[in-house]
Design a protein that fits this description.
Pathway: Isoprenoid biosynthesis; isopentenyl diphosphate biosynthesis via DXP pathway; isopentenyl diphosphate from 1-deoxy-D-xylulose 5-phosphate: step 1/6
Strand content: 5-15%
Structural class: alpha/beta
Number of helices: 17
Mean pLDDT: 94
Protein name: 1-deoxy-D-xylulose 5-phosphate reductoisomerase
Cofactor: Co(2+); Mg(2+); Mn(2+)
Function: Catalyzes the NADPH-dependent rearrangement and reduction of 1-deoxy-D-xylulose-5-phosphate (DXP) to 2-C-methyl-D-erythritol 4-phosphate (MEP).
Radius of gyration: 20 Å
Keywords: Isoprene biosynthesis, Magnesium, Manganese, Metal-binding, NADP, Oxidoreductase
Low-confidence stretches: none
């Protein structure tokens, strides 16, 4: 029986993880559930899964949950960053699902890595913000890192076992690998007229044609910043040069990514667009378990199509690639600015096209000095967020 901590238990990835746990109750236990402030959802999960701990990031939400929980459930409610880091580091914990969206997931995910846990990484921002530090800590502690993002998990499954066992320090050339091909659907605005993009609403941006995701990731998919962040994450996970990474638009979301070998072979991982598949793969690796996902019906798939990305349509993707070229500090700044810009768009404060403009402005203004510690990275992140807010105000007055 594996004891699991679910960071982001009330979100999309957290819900899918708990669905897989429910499919395999004799193999996995939700030992601790972590959420930000969704009290009613957490209460429901506590009643269903009976975790040992329920952690709320928001202290007021923690008090409310404590009042609503029946003592007979035996669930201890915790709050605070230190308590969260202690939870993921506890000796009883085997596996940590890192599914808190955004920079907020960095500290507890890094704590799990430092404790040598088996970490299922769905929070791409951890590597976007602190790739070198993260990989170094993983090597030092002996933690196991398994990629949950459908694209990175697909790449992982297409790699030789020797490369799978050297995540972060892979030698792709020695394995005969020439390119890693990241696929992306292109989101809901792939074929929309370019002049219409500035008028797109949050509801339209969140209506992804294939995947069911939370609002922030849905907007990132619409701008293709999500693919840009995945590009940066892949650079750290698979130790690639930038010329070894390519992005391919694949609207059907059937092929989740590909690995191209020196001899001309291309291995592709395919499946229905359901996050329970990569989650189950990571939970059971190197074994396989039931995920509750319908098998792919090739006769219903029909046609598979592929296109090069249009950077006029997706300037955020180009910005992410440029930030990856500039280095770790640039990717930290870009990630922070994007989180602020997307939140402003979802709140109706800025238009869709302003997301890229704010990201570009912030990336161009900050002095990029090497950040060697978690504290320095978090300070850079905070500075970039303040700059993004000022840029939003400046553009609103222009």
């Amino acid at each position: 029986m594996q004891n699991m901590v679910i960071l982001g238990a009330t979100g999309s990835i957290g819900s899918s993880t708990l669905s897989v746990i429910a499919q395999n109750p004799d193999a996995y236990r939700a030992w601790a559930l972590v959420a930000h402030a969704s009290v009613d959802k957490m209460l429901e999960l506590c009643r269903q899964f009976r975790p040992r701990f329920a952690h709320m990031v928001d202290s007021v939400a923690a008090m409310e949950l404590q009042q609503k929980l029946s003592p007979e459930l035996g669930v201890e409610v915790t709050t605070g960053e230190q308590a969260l880091c202690e939870l993921v580091s506890a000796s009883e914990v085997d596996t940590v699902m890192a599914a808190i969206v955004g920079a907020a997931g960095l500290v507890p995910t890094l704590a799990a890595v430092k404790a040598g846990k088996r970490v299922l990484l769905a929070n791409k921002e951890a590597l976007v913000m602190s790739g070198e530090l993260f990989i170094n800590e993983m090597q030092r502690s002996g933690a196991t890192l398994l990629p949950v993002d459908s694209e990175h998990n697909a790449i992982f499954q297409c790699l030789p076992q020797s490369v799978q066992q050297s995540i972060g320090r892979c030698d792709l050339d020695a394995a005969g690998i020439s390119h890693i091909l990241l696929t992306g659907s292109g989101g809901p605005f792939l074929t929309s007229p370019l002049e219409s993009l500035q008028h797109m609403t949050p509801a339209q941006a969140c209506k992804h044609p294939n995947w069911s995701m939370g609002p922030k990731i849905s907007v990132d998919s619409a701008t293709m910043m999500n693919k840009g962040l995945e590009f940066i994450e892949a650079r750290w996970l698979f130790n690639t040069g930038l010329d070894e990474l390519k992005v391919v638009i694949h609207p059907q979301s059937v092929i989740h990514s590909m690995v191209q070998y020196r001899d001309g072979s291309v291995l592709a991982q395919m499946g229905n667009p359901d996050m329970r598949t990569p989650i189950a793969h990571c939970m059971a690796y190197p074994e396989r378990i039931a995920a509750g996902v319908e098998p792919l019906d090739f006769f219903k798939v029909g046609q598979l199509s592929f296109f090069e990305p249009d950077f006029r349509r997706f300037p955020c993707l180009a910005l992410a690639m440029e930030a990856c070229r500039l280095g770790q500090e640039a990717t930290t700044v870009l990630n922070a600015a994007n989180e602020v810009a997307v939140a402003a768009f979802l709140q109706g404060r800025i238009g869709f096209s302003r997301i890229a403009a704010i990201n570009e402005a912030c990336l161009g203004q900050l002095s990029l000095q090497r950040q060697d510690s978690l504290e320095a990275i978090l300070a850079l992140d905070a500075g970039a967020r303040r700059m993004a807010e000022r840029e939003i105000d400046r553009q609103a007055q222009a």
